[in-house]
Structure prediction request, 129 residues.
Amino acid sequence: MSRAEEAARRAELAAAQERAESRQAQKLVDEFVATAKAKGIAPGPLRATLYTGQSVKTDKVGWYLRKNESLAIGDDGSYYVLTVPGGLRERFSGVKLKPSPPPLIVGKGGRDGESGDLADFLKWRLEAG
Prediction:
């Protein structure tokens, strides 16, 4: 097997692993949404932060997972990263969020306190009400 073929194979395996983890994480997210709705924890309008630092409205409602409001779960069970590109137009009209595949480890590779198990972030959000 050539080096290129070996590298392609490793990339395929890594992508398959990531998809499997996202499926597991999506189950946790779906349980969170059901529990939040059952407990009467109402979702709120989500805001995003542009790369320039301005806060803008979005087209989604949900629950923030981090205190800095950089991640959220939509009321439809989607996982959103709320730091987005944009400019003057987005400052006035807002942004349309696109869901990302949820990770099992939030902020993998980040600084202490910024990363952790998705299950823990969801649990903390439910406890906060």
Residues 30 and 77 are 6 Å apart (CA to CA).
